[in-house]
């Protein structure tokens, strides 16, 4: 025998099943809200990750020096450049060394017997042995020489004797 509810005229089973149904519906609504909240939070998280990734990539682009490699000299030419830079940078110590070296060279030249006998011939011989010989071009004369040899009619040439 089931107990009857005096107010509604129904049994206690019916009233308890309705309350259970309401509780279940309430739980389902709560779970749906939680699911929606989790979905929106994960979407926000993805957006912020993408934003951070974009900003990180922009920073990396700013530090990308690969485009400068075309303008930089090759590594093999660096020692030659360093020597040139050292020669350009003269401090007092290096100047003093150069002066001493050149003065020794001058003394050696002045004491050389060939220079003492005929200085100009010694200099001439030294230059011929150290300097490359000039190449003489054979063939057609240059256009400047042709123009200079042309006679222009109507021009009076004055020669003083």
TrEMBL record:
Instruction: Spell out the Low complexity composition-biased ranges.
Output: 8-19
Q: Does the keyword Protease apply?
A: no
Q: Which GO terms describe its biological process?
A: maturation of SSU-rRNA from tricistronic rRNA transcript (SSU-rRNA, 5.8S rRNA, LSU-rRNA)
Stretches for region Disordered: 1-23, 73-96, 120-161
Q: Which residue ranges have biased composition labelled Basic residues?
A: 143-154
State the superkingdom: Eukaryota
- Cellular component per GO? 90S preribosome; nucleolus; preribosome, small subunit precursor
Coiled-coil positions: none
Write out the entry's keywords from A to Z. Nucleus
Identify the InterPro entries for this entry.
Slx9-like
Task: State the family named in the UniProt similarity comment for this chain.
Answer: Belongs to the SLX9 family.
Q: What is this protein called?
A: Ribosome biogenesis protein slx9
């Amino acid at each position: 025998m089931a107990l009857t509810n005096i107010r509604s005229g129904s049994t206690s089973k019916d009233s308890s099943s309705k309350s259970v149904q309401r509780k279940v519906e309430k739980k389902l609504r709560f779970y749906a809200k939680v699911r929606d909240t989790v979905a929106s939070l994960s979407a926000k998280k993805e957006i912020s990750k993408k934003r951070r990734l974009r900003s990180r990539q922009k920073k990396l682009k700013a530090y990308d020096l690969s485009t400068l490699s075309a303008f930089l000299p090759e590594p093999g030419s660096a020692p030659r450049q360093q020597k040139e830079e050292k020669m350009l940078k003269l401090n007092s110590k290096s100047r003093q060394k150069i002066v001493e070296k050149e003065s020794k060279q001058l003394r050696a030249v002045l004491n050389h017997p060939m220079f003492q006998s005929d200085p100009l011939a010694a200099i001439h011989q030294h230059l011929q042995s150290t300097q490359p010989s000039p190449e003489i071009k054979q063939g057609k004369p240059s256009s400047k020489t042709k123009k200079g040899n042309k006679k222009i009619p109507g021009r009076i040439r004055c020669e003083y004797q």
